[in-house]
Amino acid sequence: MSGIAVDLGSSGGRIYVGRLLGDVLAIAEVHRFANAPVHVHDRWYWDLLRIWTEVQDGIARASAGLARPVTSSPITIGIDSFGVDYGLIDRSGALLAPVRCMRDTRTAGLHAEIYRTIPADDLYRRTGAMEISINTLVQLLSDRQRQPWLLEAAETLLFVPDLIAWFLTGRRGSEATIASTSQFFDPTRRAWAPDVLQALGLPERILPPIVEPGTPVGPVQPALARRLGLPADSLVVATASHDTAAAFAAAPLGDARPAAIVSLGTWALLGLERPGPNLSEASRAANFSNEAGVGGGIAYHKILIGLWLLQECQRRWQVDRPELDAAALHDLAAHAAPLAHLFDPEDPAFVAPRDMVETIGAWFAGRGCPAPEGPGAIVRAIYDSLALSYRRAIDALERLEGARFAALHVVGGGARAPVLCQAIADAIGRPVIAGPVEAAALGNLIGQFVATGAVADFAQGRALVARSFPPTEYQPRDAAAWSAAYGRFASL
């Protein structure tokens, strides 16, 4: 059984080939490309058509290495991506406008307007979604205010993975995990909450049918399949299309110890899998989100700043020093003094600055504190500050769950940064279990194999990943120093 996983992140896209080889899963990256929002006249967009071109290139490369006997099972394709952002399709089948990026500032302050119509506690009980300015609901409200003609002409709203699936198959629909990032999804019924849109004067007619992760969408359009070198029966699957749900599904939760998970990439999504949503007032006050997970469960988490800070600094530094790739920066951080410079990564100043290095320096200068100087010190400050912010989130999660977690699973790109993983273990005072790095792609592949029956369910898929990609464990150290640092961090 072979599958092609299209994994689209905020900073880059990757296409993988996955193969079931007996009782293990093998994965190989066949294509990688950079992704970044495009800034035009104070608006931020995703270059979706370039992304689509890169996806086609990646699928063609994958297909070239997947020759198979006629009698074997079909090749499947699944797409996962970041959430909330969407395209609007008109009745002629055209994309109405470029896809706006979640970091666009057009949504600032709009939750206050929503709450004048739907009180915050009512909206949370209805959708279980955390308050964050990137939510689809807030973006649609901005569309209604600034470009109402778009919603008037729109026939269908499709999230980014749904758009790519539509490009491939011509079929429109949405998968539950990506739909649940919208703030107009009912996590109890696992269905749209159209009354939320109605109350705000937004059109419910644009909502497509929802399917569960692990559901076939349809075959690749014949002419496109021929152009990409795919067999005629190649099948697109609605896998766990939100990368958080996919990454959570691949976390190797193999023992009975209660553990939390953080999917650590551009964003950090920290939480756990629950059998059902937590719609309590305490959960709303702590700003945790209830999004659809796999197997009928809930990916319960809080969205935090992740490697965005590092990525933006690296982008600035590489203008003059192209040798400063991620590995070089990790090495510089390993030789920098720990806990020398702490800042609050959740400060709004870090959401979409023009220059992250200058913004971090200005944060310290504005408080009369010495700023870290040079890439090594800055990266170490980022790692330490992120680690302490994750301890703050875990403390809140434990209060909500009424349980202490024995460990934290770090999956995604952050799992390949030993200094960061060790800092997190030190900050939380518990083991960090790091890996797999390609968690979203692996969860994506599990969904494909579930759809075809090659894997019985997502629980069996998780065990398959754990066998195939043993994680690395980091034990906590320097408890007194990190406890004192957390006290300083909490006062920032």
What do you see in this structure?
By secondary structure, the protein is α/β, with parallel strands linked by helices. It folds into two domains: 2-241, ATPase, nucleotide binding domain (Nucleotidyltransferase, domain 5, 2-Layer Sandwich), CATH 3.30.420.40; 252-435 and 471-492, 2-Layer Sandwich (Nucleotidyltransferase, domain 5), CATH 3.30.420.40. Helices cover 40% and strands 21% of the residues. The protein has 19 helices and 21 strands. β4 (38-40) and β5 form a beta hairpin. The longest helix is centred in the last third of the chain and has 27 residues, at 375-401. The radius of gyration is 22 Å and the shape is globular. The mean pLDDT is 95.
CATH topology heading of the largest domain: Nucleotidyltransferase, domain 5
CATH superfamily descriptor of the largest domain: ATPase, nucleotide binding domain
**If you compute it from the alpha carbons, what radius of gyration comes out, rounded to the nearest whole angstrom?**
22 Å
Classify the secondary structure makeup into a structural class. Answer: alpha/beta
What share of the residues does DSSP label as strand, in percent? 15-25%
Q: What distance lies between the first and last C-alpha atoms, to the nearest angstrom?
A: 52 Å
Helical segment count: 19
Which CATH architecture of the largest domain?
2-Layer Sandwich
How are the strands ordered across the major sheet? 17-18-16-15-19-20-21
- The total number of structural domains is 2
Major sheet characteristics: 7 strands, mixed
**Global mean pLDDT:** 95
Characterize the quaternary organization of these chains: single chain
- The poorly predicted ranges are none
